[in-house]
Write a structure and sequence with these properties.
Layout (H helix, E strand, L loop, with lengths): L9 H4 L6 H14 L8 E6 L2 E8 L2 H15 L4 E7 L5
Parallel strand pairs: 2-3
Antiparallel strand pairs: 1-2
Helix pairs in contact: 2-3
Amino acid sequence: MTFGPNNHSHEECCSEGHSAAATIATISAALSADPDIDSSAIEIRMLGPVVLLEGYISKAADREKAISLAAMIVGPEHVQDRMLSRFPTQ
């Protein structure tokens, strides 16, 4: 079953056949479990087989770490970075 404007489902693109919700939950758990990243303002969405990382980061290292963790789960070609920097003013 497919919702929204997508013409394909995540299951068709993923050899394991897990759902988009399971993928989001797995990435979210990986981000939350890493003590070196503040993922409280990062949102994870799926657009077909692509993981969209959206929201805000407070350190430059958080961007690379979030992308790296998501890429380990779905592959680097399936991760799209849409995070915005929100660095504290000095």
